[in-house]
Automatic annotation (TrEMBL):
It comes from Microbacterium horticulturae. InterPro entries: AAA+_ATPase, ABC_transp_ATP-bind, ABC_transporter-like_ATP-bd, ABC_transporter-like_CS, Oligopep_ABC_C, P-loop_NTPase, PhnK. Gene3D superfamilies: P-loop containing nucleotide triphosphate hydrolases (3.40.50.300). Residues 7-249 form the ABC transporter domain. Pfam families: ABC_tran (PF00005), oligo_HPY (PF08352). GO terms for molecular function: ATP binding. It comes from the Bacteria. This is ATP-binding cassette domain-containing protein. Keywords: ATP-binding, Nucleotide-binding, Transport. Belongs to the ABC transporter superfamily.
Amino acid sequence: MSEDIVLQVEGLTQRFGHGEQAMTALDDVSLDVRRGQTLGLVGESGSGKSTLARAVLLMRRPTAGRIDFDGADVTNLRGPALRRHRRRVQMVFQDPNDSLDPRFTIARSVAEPLIAAGVRTGARRGRILESLERVGLPSDVVARYPHEFSGGQRQRIAIARAMVAEPEFVVLDEPTSALDVSVQAQVLNLLVRLQEETGVTYLFITHNLSVVHHMAHRVAVMHDGRIVESGSGEQVMTAPRHPYTQGLLESMPVLYRT
């Protein structure tokens, strides 16, 4: 693996069920994500994007294939080795209403990755406040609860939680699709700024090519569990080769086309 590649997936296959009833959600998927960059993973609902994300995060064991992270095979990690690996990767989910426990204060929610990493209570507060400040939230939010905030603010809290342990790699699963259009650009710009400041690597999952054009250095297009096209964002947006990608572009509002 090249030193500038942080994640490499080779021949990843995911099947559910057995025999004639088996469903193939991922079919021999291969891709890589370069350090400090964003790979946009694009496709319609049901194309396999979220299944791939969960496989990459080792939330689900693939049926076949290999996942390398920072030059090491992590496909079959278990126990303490898996817990150590998970300190290096985080995820921001589509809907912050589902990802933030309503019973927890903001401080407790943001602290979750630190607790999992074994960071002592006394050392957590400063890191929590710093992470919240990075996403544009004041320190006085720590004692409040998720229902007291708008959708955009809740997603900022979810991003603060993902970034608090200084991960190397973050999966962003449709992080703006549940937000009002008026705040989507703000959250996207926040993610770009955090990447510039920290050097974090993103896998950005979306069905929206206009979002990818704003965020991604490279793009991979998924259809029926396969990668049907990949390349630079500019290449995929201006000269798509696969009919499926061409169809996605045709469905975009004219305002967003290049």
